[in-house]
Amino acid sequence: MFLFIFITAFVIIATVVFPFWxxxxxxxxxxxxxxxxxxxxCYADTSDNIPKTISNCDHKIGDIVTIKFGxxxxxxxxxxx
Length: 81
Known about the structure:
Layout: H1 2-17, E1 27-38, E2 41-44, E3 52-54, E4 64-70, E5 75-78
Parallel strand pairs: 3-5
Antiparallel strand pairs: 1-2, 1-4, 2-3, 4-5
C-alpha cells in the first residue's frame, strides 16, 4: 500500500514539475531559401533564427522550399506540397 501511495505521489509531482506536453513540440511550416548544400545535407535560416539542418536534401543553393520543423528545434524536413 505504501509503495502504491509513493508511486502515485511521484507521478503527480513529476507531472506538475515537468508536464508531459512539454515533450510534444508544435510543428512549424515555413518557406525558406536553401543557403548551403553539403553532401546531401542542406542548411536554411528561419524566422526563429535557429539554422535548420535538412537531411537527404537534393535541392540547390537558392532554391525556395517549404520545410517542417519542431518549434525551437534545429532539424527540419522538406514538406511535401
